[in-house]
Amino acid sequence: MKRIAVLISGRGSNLQAIVNAIESGLIDGEIVVVLSNHEDAAGLSYASQRSLTTVVLDHRTYSSREAFDAELLRRVESFRPDLVVLAGFMRILTREFVAHYTNRLLNIHPSLLPAFPGLHTHRRALQAGVKLHGCTVHFVTTEVDVGPILIQAAVPVLPKDDESQLASRVLRVEHRIYPQAISWFCEDRLVIKDGLVRVSGEHAEQVLFIHH
Ligand code: GRF
């Protein structure tokens, strides 16, 4: 069974989806630590309620990104994770941290990458007038929001959408594709070659398309 570290900064709804998927048997893994850089993250209270091990590491108490990430690496590594999952962890990680977890570090980004990397993706999607939007699970590389794409989910942008309606439509599919991606990782089914990810074994849908 794979050992999973989950890094969060806030609400933790993806963390909850992952916990549910472990409980339902979709993910053959265990969460060995939930680490947050904000002590008041709602996801931390949830993790404590579920009796998960939690760690708070406040980045504001470190003199530099390098110093924070060195300690982050030390703390995460002390739990000997097979996989590190970024679930709304709002920090850009150093090259050293990313390199340590090459092909073992996942992120979920709320857009159909390579469209809209960075912040405020839903607002920017509305401004751009795109009719399809969604989310992407990818392996993390040193360039932000660029690593090998593992699975994507697409949802329509509806004429009357505001930012929060669009965000919640995307979030619902985030909660489906992140556990799916993690389950493939835990089953050793992910093959990365030339920056592309294939899922080995029985047929696996690397796209989820939601009509409304
Ligand atoms: C999600 O929208 C995710 O795509 C982004 O940060 C948000 C985290 O939400 N990376 P939550 O904390 O999992 O509820």
Brief rundown of the structure:
The protein has 212 residues and is α/β, with parallel strands linked by helices.
Task: Provide the fold topology.
Layout lengths: L1 E7 L4 H11 L5 E8 L5 H8 L4 E3 L8 H13 L5 E4 L8 H6 L4 E5 L11 H8 L3 E8 L9 E8 L6 H24 L3 E4 L2 E4 L7 E3 L3
Parallel strand pairs: 1-2, 1-4, 2-3, 4-5, 7-10
Antiparallel strand pairs: 5-6, 6-7, 8-9
Helix pairs in contact: 1-6
The chain binds 5-O-phosphono-beta-D-ribofuranosylamine (GRF).
Tell me about this structure:
The chain has 212 residues and is α/β, with parallel strands linked by helices. The protein has helices spanning 13-23, 42-49, 65-77, 95-100, 121-128, 163-186; strands at 2-8, 29-36, 54-56, 83-86, 105-109, 132-139, 149-156, 190-193, 196-199, 207-209. An 8-stranded mixed β-sheet has the order 3-2-1-4-5-6-7-10, covered by helices on one side. A two-stranded antiparallel sheet has the order 8-9. The longest helix has 24 residues, at 163-186. The N and C termini lie far apart (37 Å). The mean pLDDT is 97. It binds 5-O-phosphono-beta-D-ribofuranosylamine. 5-O-phosphono-beta-D-ribofuranosylamine (GRF) is lined by residues 8, 10-14, 43, 87-88, 108-110, 135, 171, 174. 5-O-phosphono-beta-D-ribofuranosylamine binds next to α1, β5 and α6.
